[in-house]
Amino acid sequence: MSDRTFPANLPKPAPIVDRPAERAWSGRLTPGRLPSGARLLGPALVVLVWEAASRLGLLSPYTLTAPSTAVVTGYELLADGTLLPHLLASAVRAYAGLFLGVTAGVVLALVSGLTRSGEALIDGVVQIKRAIPTLALVPLVIIWLGIGEAMKIFLIFTAVLVPVYINTHAALRGIDIGHVELARTLGLTRAEFVRRVALPGALPGFFVSLRLAVTLCWTALVVLELINTQTGIGYLMNRARDWGQTDIIVVGIFIYAILGLASDAVVRLVEARTLSYRKALGA
Fold first, then answer.
1. What percentage of the chain exceeds 70 in pLDDT?
2. pTM for this structure?
3. Crossing angle, helix 83-114 and helix 233-242, to 10 degrees?
4. Which residue ranges form the domains of the chain, and what is each CATH number?
């Protein structure tokens, strides 16, 4: 096309210049492009350095056993039937508290985020709990519930509830006002508004909170299983400490790490499938 095609008073269009460097940076900075296994690179490097330090004699086995030794010990505990009952006991406690905390956090966030009276009654209480460490409640909860399973599940529940509430509530408050006005224009009932607008709008914040929650439930459990328990991974680690068995302690650390990573991966997978519509819309 010649220059005479354009009117004299309009500038000529800028030529299209291919910039490979810009394309490269664009690809690196685009979210979601990290390969699925790339997140394991950091932990794998830590384990390799740890193993090398142990083999070179820089780490004493009485201070910190080598990862390879811990793997062998873990296999032996699994083979002789010692490990599985303790793992199941820990999983029941962690996921029972997780389920209760997530359910209560979402319900409270909906009530507080969608009604003024709910926010007035609920938000301040949750913010106070947010400022109080979970471990500070241990003596009081022991008086209320004793030192059995109910105490441990309740404290995991309180630890999980706060991040679920905070992030879901923030997502609800951040819903586009245009969507709210559109729902009013269409005459949606409150139940329809919650189902079609509020819940879909809060999903991104909810998944952020769920990723925090699946980690917190195991973090809280580590400490709680040191309190008068006869089963659980924490109990195994506590008993191993008394006998100086660092290999069993490292086995417990590996189990917590693997369960935490696996739980986070499951949440990521569910999040990617649930929010796949955002990618289709270019969100």
1. 83
2. 0.77
3. 130
4. 63-280 (1.10.3720.10)
